[in-house]
Amino acid sequence: MSLEWTPLKPKIGAELRIDSEALLDGGHAGEIRNLLVKRGVLIVRGANLTDDQQRAFTRTLGDLRLGEVKQEGEGGLMKVTMDMRENPQYAEFFPGTFFWHMDGTYERIPPFATVLTPRVLSPEGGDTEFASTYAAFEDLPDDEQKYLETLQVVHSLHAAMFHAVPDARLEDYKVWMDYPKPTYPLVWQHKSGRKSLVLSTSASHVVDMHPADSRALLDRLFAHATQEQYVYHHRWQMGDLLIWDNTGTMHRVRPYDPASGRVLHRFTLNGEEPITAGAA
Ligand code: OGA
Ligand code: MN
């Protein structure tokens, strides 16, 4: 039987209707991957997977990330939480997750996709939003697309944290400044054939452009890409399973009380292609 799904918004998101047995047997894995690239975010309500099932399901979709990055814990499970005791390494990056971002822009090959399940919800706030940088690019006029395809952008942790930690100390800056500052094309020509804007809170400046013009351009593109029509707003329910294509979407979590104990369990799929410019 083919996969049953309905769009969440016309330009982003799909809700799958599939039972956990079918999720786990991998029979639909190819279709799910294709749909993920087509829709950017997939959700299954009432999936109710255990950690082991969530890991097994993630494995059906690609190459499970196993602890090569320090935030990942045992068996690839990462606990997304503001609780420093649960995940002190992740807490270091945490302030940035409230801003529109792609994960792993400090790595050569950013993760392909991520699978999340809520374990403890916050009573207020803590919704997660996703913006399709595929759709945002595809809707731009041809001449602007062509121009943007010629540009390169420097990404840095310092750029991401500057807004996220307004009361940062010199010691914080020292840690951030030590991170790699990769340069990526502004437009990603994916192997799938789709193109997307490579935007994230880590986007610092456009190469060879005056900083004033660069800031204006990046601000304008962020405003464009995060318009209502490109955004899916997810209100978490226990039992949810959510998958996003990290290469063609940005995401952010809405503010919530750090004392709420909110925890999501996360497994990540390694990236499969570096960010490559199209033939501009
Ligand atoms: C992440 C992330 C958002 C959330 O896991 O990379 O940004 O809802 N999480 O906590
Ligand atoms: Mn993130």
Number of domains: 1
Reading off the top of the CATH hierarchy, the class is best stated as Alpha Beta
Bound molecules: N-oxalylglycine, manganese (II) ion
Class based on secondary structure composition and strand pairing: alpha+beta
Name given to the CATH architecture: 4-Layer Sandwich
The CATH H-level homologous superfamily: Clavaminate synthase-like
Low-confidence stretches: none
SS strand fraction: 15-25%
Strand order of the largest sheet: 1-2-3-13-5-15-4
What is the radius of gyration computed over CA atoms, rounded to a whole number of angstroms? 18 Å
Which helices and strands appear, and what pairs or packs with what?
Blueprint: E1 4-7, E2 14-17, H1 20-24, H2 29-39, E3 41-44, H3 51-61, E4 78-81, H4 88-93, E5 113-120, E6 128-132, H5 133-138, H6 142-148, E7 152-155, H7 157-164, H8 170-177, E8 183-185, E9 187-189, E10 195-197, E11 203-206, H9 211-225, E12 231-234, E13 241-245, E14 249-253, E15 263-269
Parallel strand pairs: 2-3
Antiparallel strand pairs: 1-2, 3-13, 4-15, 5-13, 5-15, 6-12, 6-14, 7-8, 7-11, 9-10
The structure holds N-oxalylglycine and manganese (II) ion.
Manganese (II) ion binds at residues 97, 101, 103, 251.
